[in-house]
Amino acid sequence: MFSGLVEGKAKVVGVQKTKNNIRLEIDFGKVASGIRQGDSVSINGVCLSVVARKGVRLTFDAIAETLRKTNLGRLSAGDRVNYETSMSSNDLIGGHLVTGHIDGTGTIQSIEDEDGSIKMVVSVPEAIGSRVMEKGLLAVDGISLTPADVRDDRFTLYLIPDTLKKTTISGRKVGDAVNIELDLFGKYIERQVIKYMTARLRKKKR
């Protein structure tokens, strides 16, 4: 489990592609000393396990399902990624509860500079946009953010200078894909409401 408070940026130094999967080698610098093989780390919001470690370089595997729903398959050597190590049970949650299980990707539609801050519009499939709540909870590339101006096909992000400094979102361009994770509790509520309504409809048909 993560909080959506990105700890920093790490550099991709190697990408090995097979038919369906990829293996990422990422340079974490001094931070790597506190991460062990088997640990879960959020990479651009995606929960991945450390499969190997060599000095400051950590290796992760991403399978076909992960590549289908995220932007990890677009990574190349030299790219920077957001990272966050998993929370412990006594950590303060400064952002919100983030699982690292991505619901899909959105596409950056526009970027406007507003006196050092950024207004960014992200277009999304209706299956995602219809479940985003105005001023609710959202993780974009692993960053806990608050969506505004929500429509079924897009939402707007207002990014403060500190977020731009600490994350890779400052380097994003129009047309780039970003990973989106919807609010965990919202998904549970949605699931239970669907189950309840389905049960009621079945009961009426009897």
Any overview of this molecule?
- The chain has 206 residues and is α+β, with helices and mostly antiparallel strands.
- It folds into 2 domains: 8-85, Elongation Factor Tu (Ef-tu), domain 3, CATH 2.40.30; 104-189, Elongation Factor Tu (Ef-tu), domain 3.
- Helices cover 18% and strands 39% of the residues.
- Strands 10-9-13-7-8-12-11 form a 7-stranded antiparallel beta sheet.
Q: How would you sum up this structure in a few lines?
A:
Helix content is 18%, strand content 39%.
Give the topology.
Blueprint: E1 8-17, E2 22-27, E3 40-43, E4 46-54, E5 57-62, H1 64-69, E6 80-85, E7 104-114, E8 117-123, H2 126-129, E9 138-140, E10 143-145, E11 148-151, E12 154-159, H3 161-166, E13 177-182, H4 184-205
Antiparallel strand pairs: 1-2, 1-6, 2-5, 3-4, 3-6, 4-5, 7-8, 7-13, 8-12, 9-10, 9-13, 11-12
Specify the number of helices: 4
Number of discrete domains: 2
User: Major beta sheet, specifics?
Assistant: 7 strands, antiparallel
Binned, the helix content reads 10-25%
Determine the N-to-C terminus distance: 42 Å
The dominant shape is: globular
Strand content: 35-45%
Give the radius of gyration: 18 Å
For the record, the CATH class of the largest domain is Mainly Beta
Give the strand order of the largest sheet, numbering strands 1, 2, ... along the chain: 10-9-13-7-8-12-11
The CATH architecture of the largest domain would be Beta Barrel
Q: What is the tally of beta strands? A: 13
**What pattern of helices and strands is seen along the backbone?**
EEEEEHEEEHEEEEHEH
Report low-confidence residues grouped into runs of 5 or more: none
